Amino acid sequence: MDDVWEVDGTLEPIDFSGYAEDRAPLDLAIRAVERWSAPGDWVLDPFAGLGTFLAAAARLHRRAIGIEPAPERLDYLRRHFVPPHRIIAGKAETVDLTGLPPIGLLLCSPPYPTVDLADDPWGPGYFDDMAAIFARLGRTLRPDGRIVVEVSNIRTEDGFRPLIAQFSTLLGALFSPRDAVLRINRSAWPAGPGTGWSSLLVFAPPTGP
User: Fold this and answer.
1) Which residues contact 119 (CB under 8 A, 6 or more apart)?
2) What is the tens place of the pLDDT at every residue in 122-171?
């Protein structure tokens, strides 16, 4: 089935000395870039982290833009992505977006909150923050562009958070829903906190086709 993807899910080793398990597997990233963009497109990841989605874009002859605030991760990204790819230092909620080329694909995994938002570093305003971030990023897309957000639910000893449904509602209030894909890991590697599967939620700008 084209809306159910099985991937190995194991994370590839990378030359980064810090914590590196909060990233998507490259095989998932490649499949997403292939499906929702074309060679030559600009692919934006506003939560670039260690650049898995950017690496997939570069491998498939797209041009990648990553936004990342953490200095050690910025150093890693700048070592691996040189022009025409772009690495922007800053936070997605405040970084200057003027001068960006029209984006064909906004592809990312959002930062994950805890089950209890009061204990999360983003605080109780997490979903308001995410709505504001995606609203401003959506203005960088071409009219025929796509927003693809890979997200899993959260299951911990503290409880359960239906993050997929929450992001579906949040993004659906901003953009036009287009598709959803279920991703299942064949390996024992988790797809998210406490779960072996995630969803890729697909949207178009409100003025898109």
Assistant:
1) none
2) 899 999 999 999 999 999 999 999 999 999 999 999 999 999 999 999 99
Q: Which of 82, 171, 93 is nearest to 137 (CA)?
A: 93
DSSP 8-state class, residue 110 = P
Quote the longest CA-to-CA distance of the chain.
45
**What dihedral angle (degrees, nearest 10) is formed by the CA atoms of 187, 189, 195, 200?**
-80
Q: What are the residues facing 179 on neighbouring strands?
A: 202
- Alpha-carbon distance of 177 to 194, in angstroms, equals 27
Separation CA 102–CA 190 (nearest Å): 34
Strand ranges for 25-92 from DSSP E: 42-45, 63-68, 86-89
Q: Do 147 and 202 touch, CB atoms closer than 8 A?
A: yes
Sequence-distant (≥ 6) Cβ neighbours of residue 46 within 8 angstroms: 67, 92, 106, 108, 133, 137
Alpha-carbon distance of 179 to 30, in angstroms, equals 18
d(CA 88, CA 100): 11
The stretch 63-72 carries a mean pLDDT of: 97
Nearest CA to 107 among 165, 164, 67? Answer: 67
Q: Model-level pTM? A: 0.94
